[in-house]
Write a structure and sequence with these properties.
CATH topology of the largest domain: Peroxisomal Thiolase, Chain A, domain 1
Order of helices and strands: EEEHHEHEHEHEHEEEHEHEHHHEE
CATH class of the largest domain: Alpha Beta
Strand order of the largest sheet: 1-9-14-13-12
Structural class: alpha+beta
Pathway: Lipid metabolism; fatty acid biosynthesis
Number of strands: 14
Keywords: Acyltransferase, Cytoplasm, Fatty acid biosynthesis, Fatty acid metabolism, Lipid biosynthesis, Lipid metabolism, Multifunctional enzyme, Transferase
Pfam families: ACP_syn_III (PF08545), ACP_syn_III_C (PF08541)
GO molecular function, one term: 3-oxoacyl-[acyl-carrier-protein] synthase activity
Organism: Saccharopolyspora shandongensis
Distance between the termini: 40 Å
CATH architecture of the largest domain: 3-Layer(aba) Sandwich
Number of domains: 2
Shape: globular
Largest sheet: 5 strands, mixed
Radius of gyration: 19 Å
């Protein structure tokens, strides 16, 4: 499904209100879990982990910390970056909400002093921020919202079985946030030309089976495995690489861009092999592919805003750059969109603790 303001390849100027990026922030927990620590736990080497994932470290929350705590910190940084009026809408994309009910977004909004803002969660797993961008763009275009705070946050350390080598070496905790305001489709920072899709027949490829109505209706207690995150790595790799590449091509075509026009590809930070496969399939040089999973791992819905944050902080992402975002997650879900990066102050790297 392609969602766009104009037909692929059209030179027609877009019209109406657009969602324009005006703020950015990221936050990861302080606790670092290194490959050396995991090597001792699983009797593997640092090289074994790095070769398969490209990850050398990941972050994990301390006991008692939850998704909302990380979301608030990332949101606060993004709001500081944006300045101006307070958002009237808060969206939190997460697969690890504080509770099954209520949503996490209203609590986050309240803790940020936005008690009367509309607030809701988006559940599209690792595709959540791209889906959230589409929702925010629609709300702004329709005149329902003037300013949206979109946060991607996950604490996978709370749902991954820490004796599960396959997933424990990949997944980490983190949060990233974007502020979007109403603006002109032609200005820097305007987000558009979305391509979104799903395939529910693959729901069991990435799943936490327990906790929802399906498991509860079975009238039996959940097994240990059902209470933890599960992923069929080989099948997911194939789907993720194919879906992100095809979705990216559709978004680029809708924007009238070619792969050579892209200054920075920002894919979901699943693992390094998937990133390289997608970039290669699109014909985009690896040097133009954002990669921050080396130090923070796969942070789920947080990966794209965190990668944007760290690329902007390092100077790899600069005003006017043509940016392609693409993601794949449980559901199965996937999505892509494009924008030209706005002229905003570079944020702090997510790992820097002091406030601006």
């Amino acid at each position: 499904m392609s969602i766009s303001g104009r037909s692929p390849g059209s030179s027609e100027k877009p019209s109406g209100r657009a969602a324009v990026v005006c703020g950015l922030g990221g936050w990861v927990p302080q606790r670092v879990i290194t490959n050396e620590e995991l090597s001792q736990r699983f009797d593997v080497t640092d090289e074994w982990i790095t070769t398969r994932t490209g990850i050398r470290a990941r972050r994990a929350v301390d006991p008692g910390q939850a998704t909302s705590d990380l979301a608030v910190e990332a949101g606060r940084r993004a709001l500081h970056s944006a300045g101006g009026e307070a958002p009237d809408t808060v969206i939190v994309a997460t697969a690890t909400p504080d509770r099954p009910c209520p949503g996490t977004a209203p609590l986050v909004a309240s803790r940020l002093g936005l008690q009367e803002a509309a607030a809701f969660d988006v559940s599209a797993v690792c595709s959540g921020v791209v889906y959230g961008l589409a929702v925010a763009s629609g709300l702004i275009a329709a005149g329902v919202s003037r300013r949206v705070l979109l946060i991607g946050a996950d604490v996978y350390s709370t749902v991954v079985d820490q004796s599960d080598r396959t997933n424990a070496v990949i997944l980490g905790d983190g949060a990233g946030a974007l502020v979007l305001r109403a603006g002109d489709p032609d200005e820097l920072g305007a987000v558009g030309h979305f391509e979104l899709g799903s395939d529910g027949t693959g729901e069991e490829l990435i799943i936490i089976a327990a906790g929802g109505s399906r498991q509860r209706a079975s009238d039996r207690p959940p097994t240990r495995a059902e209470q933890h995150f599960s992923m069929r790595g080989k099948e997911v790799f194939r789907h993720a690489a194919t879906r992100m590449a095809n979705s990216s091509r559709a978004a680029l075509s809708a924007a009238g861009w070619k792969p050579d026009d892209v200054d920075l590809l920002v894919p979901h930070q699943a693992n390094l092999r998937i990133l390289r496969t997608v970039a290669d399939d699109l014909g985009i040089d690896p040097d133009r592919c954002a990669q921050n999973l080396v130090e923070v791992g796969n942070t789920g819905a947080a990966t794209i805003p965190l990668a944007l944050n760290d690329a902007a902080a390092s100077g790899a992402l600069r005003p006017g750059h043509r940016v392609l975002l693409t993601a794949f997650g449980g559901g199965l879900t996937w999505g892509s969109c494009v924008l030209r990066w706005p002229d905003i102050d570079p944020p702090l790297a997510a790992t820097v603790r002091s406030e601006p």
